[in-house]
Amino acid sequence: MRIALAVLLISLMVPAGVLCAQRGGEPQSELVRQAQQLTRENKLDEALARYQQELQTSPGSVAANTGAGSVLDLMGRGAGAKQYFTKAIDAAATPLAKANARRAMAMSYAFDNDCRNTARLEEQVFDYYVSVKDFYNQGEILNEAARVCIEAGDFDTAETLYKRGRDAGLKEPGIAPDRVALWNFRTEHALARLAARRHQPAAAQQHVAAAKAILDANPEMAKGQAVFFPYLTGYVAFYGGDYKTALADLQQANQSDPFIQVLLGETYEKLGDSAHARECYERAAKTTGHNPPAAFARPFATKKLTTAA
């Protein structure tokens, strides 16, 4: 299996165009709003038509270009998607808008399971956050790239990016203790998964224990992060071949997360339950996010369903 999910809070299940609007980008036209809603409804042909209609009169619309690119990625048409993201990057009027467009392009490469190009573009986004001294988002962006690289099979690059992300985040002036705990928890979570992928069960369990200790010592931080712990233990159990434990733990994780749906599907397969596996894949194949979980889950689940048909 080549799919994993990290624990960053930035993995919102929304199209890229919505992210631009939320971050103070250009005002959204009615056609763009319609396209975004159609994307959420998984009506991708109609959504693409709306974006293209908007671009006939506003070819420099960053929202329409990133939206069209996102839809094409969901449709498995990555080459066409990247043409739109390139236009969005070129048209972006501010450094933040350009960084957001590059981040969307990075996610397009994530749909290709391409660690190198994802990391290359995320480094450019990281440089923007360095320029504005936003330490938290420096860490977020590097960890986001790491999430792609771990499942592209480049474990060394993923580990380097996770650690760099933690180190960048911890440089935040006057950082709160809960924020320190958050970065340390995320890092132990990542190192446990990396150890599991490297077939190092003892090391994986050591990092799982460290992650649990951080959660237990920081109840406020744990309120938002505890849901990621059964994902972690289920993930480690899956790669350790303990599928019954993996199933029990993953059923306590976020059931709306497309990667959890995929991992559950694979676990059911290992247990010989093809009916439940298919149900999980069908749910994951309908995700409409443009982020690492969706970038892995939708193509993977779609392929599983096509192969089984």
Structure keywords:
Serine Threonine Protein Phosphatase 5, Tetratricopeptide repeat; disordered N terminus; mainly alpha; globular; 4 domains; 75% helix
Structure overview:
- The chain is mostly helical.
- The protein has helices spanning 16-22, 30-40, 44-57, 62-74, 78-91, 95-111, 115-131, 135-151, 155-169, 177-197, 201-217, 219-225, 228-239, 243-250, 258-270, 274-284, 292-308.
- It has 4 domains: 13-110, Alpha Horseshoe (Serine Threonine Protein Phosphatase 5, Tetratricopeptide repeat); 113-171, no CATH class; 176-236; 257-309, no CATH class.
- It has 17 helices and no strands.
- The two termini are 20 Å apart.
What's the topology here?
Layout: H1 16-22, H2 30-40, H3 44-57, H4 62-74, H5 78-91, H6 95-111, H7 115-131, H8 135-151, H9 155-169, H10 177-197, H11 201-217, H12 219-225, H13 228-239, H14 243-250, H15 258-270, H16 274-284, H17 292-308
